[in-house]
Amino acid sequence: MRRYRELDEMGRVQLSRSFYIRDFLFSEIGAAFGIPNVPDDLDLAVYAGRRLCETILEPLQDTFGRIHVRSGYRSAHLNAFGNARGLNCSSNQRTFADHIWDRRDAEGNAGACATVVIPWFLEHHRPDEWEKLAWWLWDNFDFHRVVFFGRQASFNIGWRENPMREIRSHVAPRGILAGPGMLNGWGDHSDQYPGFPALRAPAQPALQPVASGALHCIPLHRHKEQRGEVCPTATVTRERTYTRDKIGTGA
Are 19 and 57 in contact (CB under 8 A)? Predict the structure, then answer.
């Protein structure tokens, strides 16, 4: 009963205006194999997840209407299980600061990723027209990485400290569409996505702190950011530059 109450309180932690951490904890792997999908470091998961929601997911939803989150947070244990059994999970080292929100990557960056489907896009375009959506995302967000998949034009999109800014695809045309050192990323690409709505940036509410002791299963009873503290970062955000002598081509 105590564990249930702790998890119930954790799920109520608000990440942004319309997203709560509970929205990102469901996993088909966890449900099928009985593996709990619960953060080991809730403070770091909330810090990264909040920035993913505030800077990317909320504006997406304000612009296109309701979005569908196919996959969000994965615990390191669950991700390793899925990777070992070929269940569409990368290795833990490649997934830190990605789907594993509560671990920093090898360079010390915090980050969070979600797999998203946009119903508006499926109503107006075929899934194989994913490049239109890709260029719209490129022009409107300072994401870390976007990776497109075949079904329903679903894609991973992630926030990370020191974003790399890259778009990849596992469907035709496979490979890297845009990224560091590629000249096709320069300028405006609105001619690639005619009829798309303009980005709408939502106003963010002041989030309420978690009641003291409500998350006593977690090392810190109240989240650093909710107390007005800044989660420490290991690196300083660098300015993006592109190398002119590298001519990028869409894959």
Answer: yes
**Of residues 184, 104, 105, the one with CA closest to residue 138:** 184
According to DSSP, the residues that pair with 148 across neighbouring strands are: 155, 169
Average pLDDT over residues 69-77: 97
120's tokens: 């508006």
Tokens coding 139: 């022009």
The CA-based angle 21-35-168, given to 5 degrees, is 65
Name which of 121, 117, 189 is nearest 154 in CA terms: 117
Q: How many CB atoms lie within 10 A of CB 201?
A: 12
pTM (predicted TM-score) = 0.81
* Per-residue pLDDT tens over the stretch 104-152: 999 999 999 999 999 999 999 999 999 999 999 999 999 999 999 989 9
Q: Write down the residue that tokens 């569908």 correspond to.
A: 68
